[in-house]
Amino acid sequence: MPVEEPGGKKSVPGGLWTKCEKCNEIIYNKELGKNFKVCPKCGYYFRLTPKQRIRLLLDRGSFRENYANLKPSDPLGFVAVQSYKNKVKQDQKKTGLSEAVISGEGRIGKHKVAIAILDFDFMGGSMASVVGERVTRLIEKAIKKRIPVVIVSSSGGARMQEGVLSLMQMAKTSAALGLLDRERIPFISILTNPTTGGVSASFAMLGDVIIAEPRALIGFAGPRVIEQTIKQKLPEGFQTSEFLLKHGLIDMIIERKNLKSTVVRILNLFSS
Ligand SMILES: [Zn+2]
User: pTM for the complete prediction?
Assistant: First the structure.
């Protein structure tokens, strides 16, 4: 059972309970899992790992990873507080992934799809050379096989440790999606909290259908930076899924529990 610590902080014994980051409620992990990792008390959306996202979206056992052999390198020999090489190693260990995106093929409601999922826990889901390359190759493969592309985004933007090489991925992935569009193959983009920076400014916002999870932060620059730049107060709810839907930037907001059935419906529609 959770116990009160001196000072009133609740400590949570590992593995059994999770404390909601928003309402501080202690939730039984099994209950949280059954509820698709959405807080049953306040509706807060916990982040899903790519593995959990695969379980949520894809038909069971259908996922096959590709381009896992593309591994991050350190083209600039970047060292800040910590060396880039070490940071990559650390996040590889933390997430069990080799890069901030996992790509592959699988089936959603029997439809074959090419799918990529970004992981915010790996260096903020930042777009690096290998992230852009995996996404681009996935799109090219989808063109060859004539199957739809699904990308689930969560990203803080470009990866500064790779400098301009990371920025180039915006153009590269967008160009690949241009080719996909020319072949009239659908791309469904799913935006989760948060989707910002170079990812939002490239492939994430180029979906034929753009779906967002509720209350996700979606935008290019952060609200503080914008306020300081334009010296104006931003409207209530700025850069949330709900705000973007109201202003026509996304197509729909779908609760996590309905995400798969919605994607299946869209794929049915496209294939007919
Ligand atoms: Zn909560």
Answer: 0.93
